[in-house]
Amino acid sequence: MNPIVQIEQVKKHFGKQEVLKGIDLDINEGEIFGLLGPSGAGKTTLVKQLVGLELPSSGQNKVFNIPMPSLDVIAKIGYMAQSDALYGELTARENLQFFASLYGLNRGRQKDRIQTCMEIVQLSEHTDKQVSNYSGGMKRRLSLAIALLHEPKLLVLDEPTVGIDPVLRKSIWNSFYELKKRGVTIIVTTHVMDEADKCDRLGMIRDGHLIAVGTPQSLKENMNSTSLEDAFLSYGGVN
Q1: Class of the 1-76+153-165+173-239 domain?
Q2: At a CB cut-off of 8 Å and minimum separation 6, what does 208 contact?
Q3: pTM of the model
Q4: Domain residue ranges of the chain, discontinuous segments joined by +
Q5: Which of 19, 22, 84, 26 is nearest to 50 (CA)?
Q6: Mean pLDDT within 80-106
Q7: Strand order, beta sheet including 154-158
Q8: In terms of DSSP H, where are the helices of 81-135?
Q9: Are 230 and 222 in contact (CB under 8 A)?
């Protein structure tokens, strides 16, 4: 396997609080990798480092074999944060055009990618609606469309389907599988067990520790568990 992300003994402190405690992890090219853990486990802190928004207190993150942060590498990453970074007074199209310009897409390419990405998240009929009139779930879907605009080789999604109904969630995951077929590597943070089960591999995080890594099936089998939730509790030492 070809690791596209290499996390080497990464620690992170905020004052006296240690949020990440010596994380070692490789994420391979073309896989959907899930970071599974409760709120406050350290998932968001870790992915922010991978996209160059935070630095580790010690250790090193490499993406495409280049130490982060790197402006050249950041341009190859699509990132969807937990909080939607959208301009409410603009339409969805205007938001997409703004971010497409930041990505360096020319006008012709912008038009094609905006149409394609809005189709993926099933918002085509709402492209010219002002974002302040979007529901919370629609804003999440628009944020995903923005992350996909420049056809990134690595897609980092922090709780991407929060607030999205189950039918649309299934459709979005089908889109992830299609992106994977094209060689895109996808990192998803989640605390939802049925969503974690859809990943190729998982890294279970609890209290800043990486407590287990493997396929969903192998993680369950190793703990003689029928569910990921039971396996997670077993790995975490919770009875």
Answers
A1: alpha beta
A2: 12, 18, 19, 20, 21, 23, 41, 42
A3: 0.91
A4: 1-76+153-165+173-239, 86-151
A5: 26
A6: 93
A7: 77-80, 154-158, 185-190, 32-36, 201-206, 209-214
A8: 92-102, 107-120
A9: no
Measured CA to CA in angstroms, residue 36 lies from 27, 46, 84, 213 at distances of: 14, 12, 21, 10
Please say whether the beta carbons of 52 and 69 come within 8 A. Answer: yes
Lookup: tokens for 85: 């970074």
Which contiguous run of DSSP H or E holds residue 60?
Answer: strand 58-63
163: three-class secondary structure by DSSP: coil
Q: Look up tokens 């879907």; give the residue.
A: 141
Kindly state the DSSP code that residue 133 receives in the 8-state scheme.
G
Amino acid at 5: V
171 falls in which pLDDT band (50, 70, 90)?
confident
pLDDT at 238: 52
CB neighbours (10 Å) of residue 202?
Answer: 26
Q: Which of 237, 215, 239 is nearest to 228 (CA)?
A: 215
